[in-house]
User: Fold these one by one.
Assistant:
Number 1:
Amino acid sequence: MALEVPAALEAKIDEVITHYPVSKRSAVLPLLHLMQHEYRYITDDAVNWVAAKLGLQPIQVLEVVTFYPGFRQSAPGKFHIRVCRTLSCAMAGSYELMESLCKAADIDRSHVDHHHPIAVSADGKYSIEFAECLASCGFGPVCMVEDDFHESVKPEAAAELLKQYQ
Amino acid sequence: MSAAITYKAGKQPHPREHRLIFRNIDREGFNPSIECFVANGGYEMLKKAVGMERQAIIDEVKKSGLRGRGGAGFPTGVKWGFIPPTNTKPVYLICNADESEPGTFKDRYILHQDPHQLIEGMVIACFAVKATLAYIYVREEFPEAAIILEKALAEARANNFLGKNILGTGYDLDIFVHRGAGAYICGEETGLIESLEGKRPYPRIKPPYFPAALGLYMCPTIVNNVESLCHVKHILEMGGEEYAKLGTPNNTGTRILCVSGDVQKPGYFEVQVGKVTMGEVINDLCGGLKPGRKLKAIIPGGSSAKVLRADEVFKLRDGRELGIMDIPMDFDTMAACGSMAGSGGVIIMDDSRSMTWVINNLNNFYAHESCGQCTPCREGSLWMKKISDRIVAGEASPSDVAELERVANNIEGKTICAFGEACSWPTQSFVKKFREEMIGDTKPDLEQAVVNPETMLAAAGLR
């Protein structure tokens, strides 16, 4: 077990497992969320650690990680940005927002594909990806920076938005 | 309740609205704390419910005619009644707060601003179906909602509305928040259950059609949408029969319409089901179309609902003929018009929009979100994306439009869950109703290039 999990995190993990009195396996998602919060993405070590903690095979954890878009398998920037790509936001200008955010953050998205959706700025400060419907369709374009939610972000306001995240 | 409620500046409900669920949304001086909720009459219905016979609560919900607000519109009380009467296993209840149908944005406001309304509804529902453990499955993209709910649940526990021996009745219940991880398929109730079991959210094979028979941990499980569960306390407050007087027959109560796209004032509006028409939604609630624009198309119930074309005339079985603006916003008429009221997400498109571009955007969504379990959907959704990508790029031949339709027709009805329909209905309806426009976006001269083997061999460097 290569991963040294801080005591406070492990205490939190032990508490979360009690939310699932019938099956510890149910705690896979919450544990992965806690891991991603701590380490910024899901490493192989984290997969092994979670599997051992819950008495599962590592593949039973890895297959969950690889399925859900919410889990990252590579390091994001210091601030991770998600721009809503789906219809109502796209109609409101989310593709233009993506473009201007990339410009403002100096991010090259040319190598992005389905399996590698995240692009990181050269200085590692920002990373960005398209997300599917963020459920604020009346107030697009919508984006999230880390856990902060931003509505009606005009493409021309991209640089201003990033100034909040230094 | 009779005290006048004031709303924040610029957030006043439209006079056509009838607010039950959204009564406290954007309300001046209202906050998500339990003190505020209780000061406004909160948890009184729970106190009433725990003094009632369980079956009487279910009967009130049945009488109310409440239909699920998540998308399928299935009667909530009937769903509750599907738990086998001889059941001896534990019963679970899950609140589906995975709101992710494109065009739908209502649950966030409830979770952020009035979480105790949901919790009260859930505890009543759990009491009625004898659930002793419940989860709120919140989509990962609502991190703030998860924090607010955790706090609200702790407050409810501290006040004995939750936990052991609730209100001295001997009834034990706990509710926990479970966060998803960004997958649309988790809105499908059996996929959600698999996800909650810590697995990939592959929807389960039916039958059993309802998790009420076999659900979480192979025990009877009720899965209800956030909005549906919120209605429960209002049904108890009003009585099922009174509640059923709201709305129209078989389409009772209120529901939240979420309007987005090409209107002056998009937003959320709680209205009596079937008491406003599409035209009133656009022109009254949303302030009309943008200046100088004409209506082109409407997706009436979330992105999976079939598109309606502005100039269609809908002939109903009872002889009525409706234009698009005359359609009452209810479940049954929308179905009779060949689409569905679904999740209440209404997307308005004016004549500035390319329908090829719109369907391509949606095909990208469904290709991304197919769970991959069933071949027709996994392969088909990707091919629909690829073909519509090609049409948008101006690199398609006219026959690609028919090919797109053929692929869609080979998904519908051939998959384990309703995602197959959800992803094929948009393509089927857009191609059917905007075929000429889509063909207009293709290149006739490409036809020959694609079908001529000599050209293909030459392109491959073999001639």
Note: The mean pLDDT of chain A is 96.
Number 2:
Amino acid sequence: MKIGIDVGSTGIKIVFVDQTRLIWKKVVPTKPGQSSLVQELMNQGLAACHAQQADILKICVTGYGRNLIESSSKVVDEISANAAGITLLTQGKARTLINIGGQDVKIIKLDHQGRVTDFRMNDKCAAGTGRFFEMAANILDTPLEEFHVKEDVEAVSINATCAVFAESEIVSLLAKGISKYSIIKGINNAVAKRIASLAGSGHLEEEIYIDGGPARNSGLIESLEDALLCDIKTAADPQFTVALGALFAD
Amino acid sequence: MVERIRLFSQHVFFIVFMYGGRFGIHLGSALPCFSCPFVQGCAGHCYLMALQRTHVGFQTAFEVFFSSAFVHVLWPFALFLILFLPLSKLWCAWLCPFCLFQDWITLIRKRLHIREFSMSRQVRNRLKPVKYILLALLILIPLAIANLGLHPDWGLPFCQICPARPILPLFTGNVSNFHIDMTNSVTIGFTATAMILTGVFLAGIFFKERFFCVFCLLALMHLFKKLSPFRFEKNVHACTGCGNCEQMCPVDIADVHLEKGKNHMPGAVDVLTQDCLGCMNCVESCPVDNALVFKWFDFKIFSSSRQYMTRKWSSK
Amino acid sequence: MTPVSSRLDRLKTRTKNLVQTELETQTSLIRNHPDYSDSLDPFIKILQQTFFIEQFIEQSSKDIVFTPCIQAPLELFHAAGLQPFKLACGSFAVQNMAPLHLPALTCPMIRSISGLLEMNQTEGIPLVIPTTCDWVVKFSELAGLYEKTDIHFMELPHLREEERSAKRWHNEIQLFKTWLEKRTGQKIYSKNLLRSVKLYSRAFELHDRLIRLRRKQIVSGLQYALIMNAMPYQDIEIWMAAVETFVIGLQDTGIRKIPVFLSGSPIVFPNYKMLSLIENAGMAVTADDICTMERTLQGTVAYEDASEFALLKALAQRYHTACSCPTFADNHRRINAMVHTLKQYEIKGVIFHVLKGCHPYDMEASILEMRLKDQGIRFLKIETDYVKEDEQNIVTRLEAFNRTLRSIEQ
């Protein structure tokens, strides 16, 4: 049994894997004291799988807090981990991967062996990231899974260059009586545009996958498909690809 | 290094061309350099003279051009090509005695720390057609003598005004070419022009390195460069655009630096231009490995190197 | 009520202490580095002194002249008997002293420089400013230097390949010489200038040797940065002697990392964040085209003759056409030198460092990226600021970049 842990900026994701089969997974919000939090999660997992400490073959850690975990046997950067994870899940079919994390957005190009050939990552800024959606979901009082909007809804224009300003923008739109769904569509479009500009002029090779927490928002994926002019598939368990990949990155 | 070898070569050939005849060396009358026939005991004649003469050049009746006798005109030309092709521009900066004479004058100027006169790219471009006008005259005047009854004193028009004619014989102690021939108005005209031009060129050469080469008719041998195995190429994608080549070029060729607008072409581009004298100053001052290459067929004669360049200037 | 001046003094003292601490932390990091050798001490010492300009002037045998860019010929300073003082600053702490009216997106180096000038008593020290990027053009005005010092602008033509630009710049160099003469009250004779040119040619040869050692990873990126950063603050002969000593004492550790080429915004002591992060991620910066590193000494001056005219012309050309500063308009050849070095030394990746607010490099990044990727070269752009907080984000990218480079090697 192997354990993959992704200590992200907003959530800690943990997976228990037998060979290549996922047997247990869990995500908790990141809090100070990641190390003890991880230990607690591992204990929970061991209990759930009816396993002992001795059954653990290796523990691979990735994510922002990867160097804070002492019990790790391997530390991988999350870009390589992400690529390895998606390759495993798609049997090597993914050529491009869009990851929307808590604090960053990554576009990763990879080969059939899951090796990263090129990547782009936004600079430290919350606009267009998971944090942004979290904020929007809070204000709109709508879970991310319900961010899918019917096609005939007219989108409002939202400026997503700064997460802080977007927040007040949403509040004032609501005050003006604009429908929640128009705003949601506007948010999806704005974020999609931002991600598309991160991709730049470079051609994105098919097949394109998306993962990370916000990948649960199918409305965003639709907007993104329109912005990038291509089909995008969602990874199974989009939140856990990175933790899984940590175990399989070369 | 290369500069020294070149200077050595120039001096050796200066002695050979200027005095070789006294030791029985005769290299023919179709030499592609200013081995002046007016130097007594020279080892061969500049082809420009043959080109203007009767029988072997253009002072020939029209009928001959369409007869078997034309072979007499072709033969020296073929010889000229045979001599020119293997060495191409090396004839200029490595062999030509008049080039060395100019270099001596420049050396004096440099010793005196007197600045060089600048000539802009525009002026250089405007002067380019002068060579063609001279060539046209060099062909038309002899033709006119032979066919239209122009006075024979118009013969050898280029030699009559060439500054090498009075200057080079000085090295054999012959000052006789410094005079005005008072025979008739034509001779007065020619010799007076020659004296003026000699003065102008001496001053010009003093203030502008190889000033004469700007007008040199032999530089037109460039028209046959495609036949020669001698090549000068630039790997455009290596060039950083520092401009040392243009700066150090004695005749300020800009095309090596800017490659005549061919800079979007992949790989090596031919940068051997009409004015190039093959002195290789540009290669010596190029700081990029293999950006500039002189080749003979595919054999590299000399290519630029950062280490060579750095050494050369730090040991000065 | 506390008077304004004493509050200012307090800020000054506080900033000086902060800078002192920063310098101590950074130098101890450098000193504790496995490939540190004592022969680097002179470079660190002089770099530390540059933050306390009053003491620097006291110890300097020559009068100093500030200059923010590399286009004012070092040879001319030398021939005039003046000591150039490169206005390039990598201190995060000194930004505390920067004027508050600087725009929010100010280039951090300019902010730092403004702070440095504020923190020290610099009134009356002359300043030479080649008009390169907008920040350099405007900072003297923003920092309120007009009233305080003698500023000489050198108007840099932003075309490299036009003859008219060359002529204008040649004229600027002549004016600069006249300005220097006026400052010192002594004429710069061509004989003296020639001596300086030759001296710098020797310095360049030494630099070339250093670079070759660096390409072989015998000299590390960090060591090289220290040496080059320290150059424009001291007498060139002293610098050369120190470099000679350093080179003689070198030992090959035999460790070979993945080589990368670093390009982009200036990297200045003590801000070696990028260099050490790259190194920690398992890569070695074996080449760069940064104006505070390899471009500090960019080439030998080739002159036609020793007349003043020719020497100034050669200098003008060396400090203009030979420079690949991103502020030039016809800068398409910039990439050539890069690709040439990349191919020659089998470097597969370029890391492009952009300081937030450094627009010229930001603009060059996307152009370079396209052209480099066409050549099969991996490219990573990292935008950062004079802050430490983004290190984790950068490390992630550098580690992933290292993996992509290793995967092509396999």
Note: Chain A has seven helices and ten strands.
